[in-house]
Amino acid sequence: MPVEIERKFLVVDDTWRWEVSRHRAMQQGYLGAPGGKASIRVRLEGKRALLNVKAAVMGAVRAEYEYEIPLEEGREMFDNLCIGRLEKTRHYIDRDGLTWEVDEFHGDNDGLVVAEVELIDPQQEIPRPAWLGREVTEEPKYYNHSLSLKPFRSWHAH
């Protein structure tokens, strides 16, 4: 079973921008409400569409499957079947042998910036960049599926 080991952190300032090597605009939509065994997502990235199935559990280690699908079908699913949507720009930073993915959210999640790092072992040490803030791996409200349904802008206190 494919497994993703990922930790998620808030970003405390803009100094990460100096380290970005590349970026990609993304739209994501979810094919169902939270509460089941899996989160099913359609992602549009330029001329690519991806279907992703991820175990709906909190924490750093989760089963994950991802498949490229025809772009037109991805757009149709996004436009007609998704109940929650979000937009973000993903910035990539290669640092200390790791690739950080810094997600800068737009629209109703504007103002939220989250950094994720994929690991090979849940106990792996992570050199912490100065721009890295509090870890939110165990906080469901920061997961993209949750943000698509209850966006950052709707939270009472940031």
UniProtKB/TrEMBL annotation:
Active-site residues, Swiss-Prot/TrEMBL: Y30
Domain of life, source organism: Bacteria
Domain CYTH: residue ranges: 2-149
Annotated Gene3D superfamilies: Hypothetical Protein Pfu-838710-001
Stored InterPro entries: CYTH-like_dom_sf, CYTH_domain, NeuTTM/CthTTM-like
PROSITE patterns cross-referenced by the UniProt entry: CYTH
Protein name: Adenylate cyclase
